[in-house]
Amino acid sequence: MSLLRRLRDLRKTQGLTQEAFAEQAGMSYKYYQAVEAGRKAEIRLSTLERLANAYGLEVWELLAPTPPKHPLPRRTSKPRKHAAAQSPAARRQR
Predict the structure, then answer these.
(1) Which residues of 16-51 are buried (b: 16+ CB within 10 A; e: fewer)?
(2) What's the alpha-carbon Rg for the chain, to the nearest Å?
(3) What's the Cα-to-Cα distance from 54 to each of 5, 11, 30, 92, rounded to whole Å?
(4) Where are the domains of the chain?
(5) I want to staple 32 with a disulfide (CB 3.0 to 4.6 A). Which of 20, 22, 69, 86 is the partner?
(6) DSSP state letter for 80
(7) How far from chain centre, in Å, is Cα 84?
(8) Where does residue 54 rank: exposed (0-12), middle (13-18), buried (19+ CB within 10 A)?
(9) 48 has pLDDT over 90
(10) Lowest mean pLDDT among 2-6, 19-23, 26-30, 88-92
(11) Per-residue pLDDT, 80
């Protein structure tokens, strides 16, 4: 199964729109839409980590040839922003 189809199937299983899932994963809607549509030829590891984390999976589970067997938890809280995405002032406060 391709990554793009896996992402779409997981999102639909969770009953999420692309916009809702993008927010949950901590990325822009337009970027996620391009990923799921296959318009992003190369996806960074950090992006794969965000996608997997939003579903409560490890990256290898997201990329595995068969879907994960365990039920996916429904995430309700926003993921923590990556330090590189924070402003310098926010990083100094940590």
Answers:
(1) bebeebbbbbbbeeeebeebbeeeeeeeeeebbebb
(2) 14
(3) 16, 10, 17, 26
(4) 3-93
(5) 22
(6) P
(7) 17
(8) buried
(9) yes
(10) 88-92
(11) 46
**Residue 59: which of 74, 43, 81 has the closest Cα?**
43
pTM: 0.68
The pLDDT of residue 51 is above 90: yes
Q: Is the dihedral of CA 25, 28, 29, 30 positive or negative?
A: negative
Tokens of 69: 């067997």
CA-CA-CA-CA torsion for 39, 31, 4, 81, nearest 10 degrees?
A: 150
pLDDT digits 0-9 by tens, 59-88? 999 998 887 776 555 554 444 444 444 445
Q: Could you please state the CATH topology (level 3) that the domain comprising 3-93 is classified under.
A: 434 Repressor (Amino-terminal Domain) (1.10.260)
* Identity at 38, one-letter amino acid code: G
